[in-house]
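Morning. Coffee machine broken again, so started the prediction first thing and wrote up yesterday's gels while waiting. Chain of 56 residues, entered below exactly as on the submission form.
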Amino acid sequence: MEEDYREYRTGQGVPASGEYICQSGKKAEFNENDTFPVCPVSGEETTWKHDKYEQS
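Came back before lunch.
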């Protein structure tokens, strides 16, 4: 599923349940159809990536 490589912005819907990482590096667990929140560190809009693609 190539869409999993995308970055998701604050306010977008979560495409698949799992753990995501924000730009500040904070991990958070979301369920499918949740809405991505602001950054838990800065309180500002951010982008989120699925955790399974951040582990190298």
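The chain has a mean pLDDT of 88. Going to sketch it on the whiteboard this afternoon.
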